# Entry
Amino acid sequence: MHVFQTNGTSDRTARIPAQRSPSRDAAEAALVEHYPALVRLAHLILPPALGRHRRVLAAHALVQRSLAGRGGPHAGGGAAGGEDSAHDWIRERVVRGALRPPLAVSIGVALPRALGLRVFPRAGGTDELALDRALAAADPATRAALALTTFDGLAPPSVVALLRAVGVADPERASSGAERLAASCGPGTAGLLRGPEFDPCTVHLRPTDLLGRRRRVRFAALAGTLVLLGGSAVVALDGSPAPTPGPVVSTAPAGVAPVRVPAERWADTSRVDFTAWPARGDRAADRDLIRRAVAAWTGDSPRTARSEPPSLLYAGDVDGAKVVVLYTGRALVRYTEPAGGDTRPALVETRADDSDVTTAAAVVLARAGGRTRYLLAPWIAEAGVRDLRDPRSAARPLPVAADGVTDRVSDAAPPTGPGGCAGVPALQLRSSTRIVEDHAFLLVDLGGLSPVHLTWTSLPVPGDPARRPREAAGPLGLAAWSHSACSLPLLRDSGVRAVNRWEFAAQTLPERAGRALWICTRADTWEGRGRVDVTLELPGRAVPVTTVRDTAACGRFGQDVLAGAFWSAPHGTRYLLAAGSRRIVGVSADGAVEAGARGPVLAVRAATSAPFRLSGRLPDGSSLPGWTTRSARGSG
# Structure
């Protein structure tokens, strides 16, 4: 059970909040003293769909108006009922209002005015961005339970009592959901929520679209003149932008106009990644299109704002649609306006803050009808397409336009059966000799905006240092990946940036049945988490052993590995096979099978396939627990 972190306050509300309203003096004193915490509470509960600007203003409006309306504080001086009861009373009204915002707040009529400015909390890092997205996916009652626990230090029974008092249908479910949400986001959730990134009282200010505002001011002045002359024009006087005739033009902060990188920067920089991409495309000069794209990213949406402007990577027509690609320094953003205007524009944003010459080499511009079109980096000198299942065939040349847009590439073929596939296309790219010599590498599309970089690590050689991952575009790398290619579709749409196939051990099979390879395939995501799939590759087939998520194993910071599985020889004898990486000096098994061996491999007859445990011995005498098909930690 996850235990919430609190801010040190005691749990004052094991009781249901007071039914009788406090005196006005007590309520006003409690509101002033607890104003920042109340606004933060309202801000976290309010729907993210309001957008950053209106959500901040709505939180302040709900707290400021919590004393008004039916059931407000009664007249009289003194702190009747005590400060704590007044605070409890106000908090209940704020939670009730945030769970069901009044229409006047939702549409902006009752909000405080910030004419000509956009307001939003400070932008956070990757952890804050992930938490913000998790909160946006949660229901309001769950966000309320999390906020009450985090900001006010309430225990679950008190949270349930308060939520029931404000009309939540299933407060127990909301409280449990808050615990699961906090546990899934990690132990630092409470600290992040109390940070400035979620504080609507400490905000950044940015101007609205200055050019658009000037047009609206001129229109308002013209309308006012018409009114003075007896016309019937109506001008908005509540601070909201006056309507303009014709198509709606999105308002993006003028300070977020995209940066345009010089065309040759990539050839004269030590940082060859998305920051070195120039602006390309036949609509790179289309200011209205680019303004709409920036507005979709920075406008009224729950996306994390940034103080610095994004870079424009591309703006052009792609298969009939208008496409804009931006790089924010932390994420790739693709904005698409479909042809004909029958459907709304689409915005896709993915992490890309740790890119390099390979992971920043291509961007997916469009997918349709089982085919994908890419935009290649300016440093790509040669492009081809190959089937990973067929390592002996040469890559087919991929035509690329002058602005870096490729012809369409067919997606992976449908599976042919369990664990099988008909084909897995990959991009084989070669960097320009202006930045690196003889550098070819493989990328495969797994559903994100950036194709995934494939590498491989060959078997260790006794006595040699540990080998590092290398590019998989050579004959040996292609041959190795031909055995693992059909596992790649399992990683689709999971935020993967790179996948390395590591052959960590080889084993001679009993009864002269041939040779087996132990493979650890590690998929690293843009968030830093890793997924590991361990496979035993036997002559003619591969046996999945286990999958482990959120682990450092099989990577730079987890180079010691041990795994085991049952295997039946051609004549039917069952064996327990186990193998470890190069530093394993002994292997032992206990449980259903009791055995031990010196060195990194073990092969012993097994009378049963019941669960067993593995342990490996390291040179310093410490032990390493092994993975088995029955004991995968965190496996999915």
The two ends are 20 Å apart (CA to CA).
